[in-house]
Amino acid sequence: MLLEAGGAAPRDPAAQGFRCGYTHEEYRGASVGRFFGLGGTTARWGGVLVPHLWRDAEVASPSERAIWERIVLSVERYGSAVLRRLGYRGPVDFVEYPDRAIGGPALSTLRQSGFDVLADLALPPRHRRLDFLLRREPAVDSGSVHVMLHACASVCDLRAEAADNRLERVVARAPGGRETEIRADAFVLAAGALESARILLEIAETYPSLSGSLAGVGRFLSDHLSLPIAEVPEQGRAEAVGLFRPRFWKSWMRRFRFLERDRPDAAPRAFLHFVFDTVCHPAFALAKELVAAAQERRRPCLSDVSMLRGISGLWGVARERYLHSALYVPADARIVLQLDIEQRPRAENRIVLSEERDVLGRRVPTISWSIAEEDLRAIEETAERVLAKWTSARAGLPALRPLPLRVDATKVHDVYHTVGVCRMGTDADSVVDEGLRVRDVENLWVVSTAVFPSAGTANPTFSMLCLAEDLVQRLIELLA
To answer: Hey, what CATH topology would domain 1-84+129-223+345-369+418-480 get?
Structure first.
């Protein structure tokens, strides 16, 4: 039984009756960065798949190191299976691909300057809403798996005993008042980072005996902080496009990111990537609107003029795409180097339950989130350090012109990689164990980016899917 809080087409939180309060600035990962409905937030997801690597295990805390090792081992063990499930049939070569695609002096210069180069994979647009997997699943067609829409898990009843806390039933409510009771041997909470934390906070409030075990729920809310740190001047654009523009393997896009090899021990982890600003090109604007309309199952919002301009610009896009398996980048496109750096987890960045009630009678969550001075210093120090390494290369790399570091609430956290609020671990602040099981609840697991202790050097979705595949295999054995 799959309970989906939204409907068939994803909608923003307000349209679905979900809202949050804020004690500081708005956390846009909770407002514009999430959606409810089949496909969920993936309706606005860029489809980027990239693994966390062993460098992510290089952390100061021994307990956190063990958790990152667990994450990376799941990626190594189940990464290929996850990609096959998503429809990818190419080589699994996140590390090796840059040698073939870039190669030559540029790659050698990057490595000599202290950078490793990694390639990501971007899901084809038709697959970015992961509910396409439901349509491919035979069990759904046969009726052995049931999908319930507009079914928000609003009541969770446990058999709470000293030696055996078990989730026995969930009551799902719809905005119209309909209720459905679900009983099962195992429950998996996969409601997104913030909503998963909210449900666990409700359980902890209902069952005070779990307040100690679930004391860490909602705390340590963090994200990647993202902003441009340099741009490629006009004379270097052709070189940057030739070396680093996105490539294609069939309908899968490949892009490059740069990881600093020898960062200081105290510095947060980060990655860099080039952003080719093609958004204003008529053909890309047309394609973007058509893809968005298909994902949201609505009619495209296009004027006759924009349609004609878009169609006329498709020749250059098609030429590069099908003749060179590469993304078309207009000659006047702005190219910037983007820094994504992990925010340091702080207990005061958190989600709590307020006294206010929503349309389902549930407590409205309040988010306390801010960017600390230490995060701002880390951005400045990392930008200065990596740009110095880049410019010291002298030859073989495109020139860069540093940009003023404008850290503001509208740009610095637009990646919406919410982590930390259901941390995996073995310490008192952890919420789930290394197997994703909620502490002291026998049959409840969490599948969400919320379990990551911090953001690390990668977009978290792929590693999360690998952890999910690991859990699936264990649940099959457990319930057999």
So the answer is: FAD/NAD(P)-binding domain (3.50.50)
